[in-house]
Amino acid sequence: MEEPLRRTARGGLSGQNIFPAIQASFLWSGHAWFTGRWPELRQVAEQGLRWCEERDLPMDAATRICSTRSGQ
After folding, report:
1. What single string gives the DSSP state of each residue in the chain?
2. Rounded CA separation 56/71 (Å)
3. pTM for this entry
4. What is the mean pLDDT of each run of 10 residues along the chain (72 residues)?
5. If phi over 0 gives left and psi between -120 and 50 gives alpha, with beta otherwise, what is residue 15?
């Protein structure tokens, strides 16, 4: 699932599908945490947090929005 998460997260860089990109960034950073990829973890998590900040979304609100939009 790593490559689909990367593609989804990168879609946010162009401003497309930002809510799924935020969710993918945090999921990807969780994967980086558990696999010991510390530089990658920092980069991806910071990007997700920047997107939340730019849209004035607290991290937990962005996660709820993403979950709602995906039908969960």
Report:
1. -HHHHHHHHHHGGGTSSHHHHHHHHHHHHHHHHHTT-HHHHHHHHHHHHHHHHHTT--HHHHHHHHHHHTT-
2. 23
3. 0.71
4. 82 80 88 90 88 80 47 40
5. left
